[in-house]
Amino acid sequence: MSGHSKWATIKRKKGANDAKRGKMFSKILREITIAAKKSGGSVDTNAYLRTVVAKAKAVNMPQENIKRAIQKGTGELEGATYEEITYEGYGPGGVAIFIEGSTDNKNRTSAEIRTIFSKHGGNMGEAGCVSYMFEKKGLISVSKAGATEDDVMGAALDNGAEDMSVETETFDIVTLPEHFEKVKTALEAKKFTLVSAEVTNVPKNYVEVSGHTAKSILNLVDSFEDNDDVGNVYTNADIPESELTD
């Protein structure tokens, strides 16, 4: 369980800085469009769309922007045609890097991703070279404020959660992807405060890095995230919390 909670902690610490990125809105809007294109424009029947719309609302995205992104996905409005992409490779210290995104020009994006790998001491690999090192999981972090361990654990496990860990400020819950919505809804019904909730790729094992190597990996991830076509970057780097907030 410790590996799952470690990933949640890393994402929260890094997210404090990522939230300030000006490109956040455009990336979320693209996710909404793709979700609507794949499984329809209704949040009632499209769980993926429901999750992305919730992410948009969490950063105070205007409802009109969300609506237009959905309409582009369903074809009601014209827009660029995006296809989903993944890239894999290794960063400094042999750390695995797994990238998800979308593009309207795969050749351009592939070249840009390969260049970013090279500039930061990494190597882009073939499809499948590191993806097996990650597994899809639902991660939900509940604030300890106004919540007890027994109450949160009861609500989570009764609705299909796999496990829960107690962290400094949160209770971190892990679910199978298919149980994520049910567990999240149950926790919200209990009026618990959710710090974060998402289906993500979690490393099966970690590579400990620190100092210059850790900073190089963080710079590499930042460079990927600055790319308009990159949606999510996953790594199995175990980086000290102090270096995540520098």
What does this molecule look like?
The chain has 3 domains: 2-74, Orthogonal Bundle (Arc Repressor Mutant, subunit A); 83-132 and 205-237, 2-Layer Sandwich (Alpha-Beta Plaits), CATH 3.30.70; 134-203, YebC, transcriptional regulation domain (Alpha-Beta Plaits, 2-Layer Sandwich), CATH 3.30.70. Helix content is 45%, strand content 24%. The chain is built from 9 helices and 10 strands. Strands 3-1-2-9 form a 4-stranded antiparallel beta sheet. A 4-stranded antiparallel beta sheet has the order 5-6-4-7, with helices on both faces. A hairpin with a 5-residue loop joins strand 1 (83-90) and strand 2 (96-103). Helix 2 (24-39) runs antiparallel to helix 3, helix 2 (24-39) crosses helix 4 (63-74) and helix 6 crosses helix 7.
